[in-house]
Amino acid sequence: MTALATAETFATVDGQLCVGGVPLERLAARVGSTPFFAYDRDLVTARVQRLRAALTPRISLGYAVKANPMPAVVHHLAGLVDALDVASSGEMRVALDTPIGGDSVSFAGPGKTDAELSQAIAAGVTIELESAGEAARVVAAGGRLGIRPRVAVRVNPDFQVKGSGMRMGGGPQQFGIDAEQVPALLARLGGQDVDVLGFHVFAGSQNLNAEILMEAQGRTVDLVLQLAEHAPDPVRYLNLGGGFGVPYFAQDRPLDLEQVGAHLAGLVADRIDPVLPEAKVVIELGRYLVAESGVYVTRVVDRKESRGRTYLVVDGGMHHQLAASGNLGQVIRRNYPIVVGTRADAPADETVTVVGCLCTPLDLLGDGVTLPRADVGDLVVLFQAGAYGLTASPTAFLGHPAPVEVLV
Ligand SMILES: *Cc1c(COP(=O)(O)O)cnc(C)c1O
Known about the structure:
By secondary structure, the protein is of the alpha/beta class. Helix content is 27%, strand content 25%. The chain is built from ten helices and 22 strands.
């Protein structure tokens, strides 16, 4: 098995990795084809429970649907979290199909069309304003519909989160409205038929360093409390972002959730509650809720030797799980945790290169990985596949069939 702690969260029975308690070969038979994605319902639930234990009840938990928009996953999470964040009308439809109300859905992202804005207004969804132009279009769309839009101002902060996997705030950005422009925008919105609920700051993603996250959260609270003084309506919503990272590579250490939780509780009690006790304080997470609950399961189609190197060729690849091939924003390619799911108890005594079935050298899933000896027919499993897997991959590339997704 891999050194990553998360791999151990899936049980092993008689040498087979289990997802949702179902041994892998049996699950493959039930699915009917490989490759497939499988998400473990209990692991998702356990992750939310761990978060609830670490976070003060004053914090509402939001799920960023783009991490995994499979309807069954979103439906399951809708019963566990307090809010869903969507970034397209397609995701909004999935969110609104769950029992969660439109007033617990927020819609972020640049380039929302008038049609999308109208849909969100009609659904009572909170629109996270990404620009002054968008704010004007929201007011106009609300006027056409005769419905007062619910909005929050997404703020591009005047600080940057260093060490974050992906930065989405600070400096010039397509996301949010520059902090220094926000007071003037709020003054303009004050006279209009629009309900300004509060603020949203999302400073970055995939952060494993608690110190950096806590510093960003502190600065975010400073910023939103300053801006709240300019709000035209009572502030009822403070979305402090998220960015909790998950370990993808052997040397990654998991985030110290308890430390972050304790710090957040202090921020809420000492800073927010004395000024804005009614505000809903949201932490919005995508990958942290789902990444580690998912596996991508492929079958070995071929085993070959080439000039001293052993290749395992599997029936899946980067067209389904782009991130594991290193082609989704990684600067240096590193291996995602990988195992032979049908030989989970066997000693890892062979170094192989695992490649996908695409006719491109980019389709590399495990570069020089040490695994138990696997043959044609074995199932090779990639972990950390529950977020930004299928929907973040170029499925049409090379024309192979789409994989099945199951929630087990
Ligand atoms: C993508 C996104 C998230 C989720 O990011 P993760 O790294 O998956 O947690 C949260 N909020 C916003 C606004 C986003 O765009």
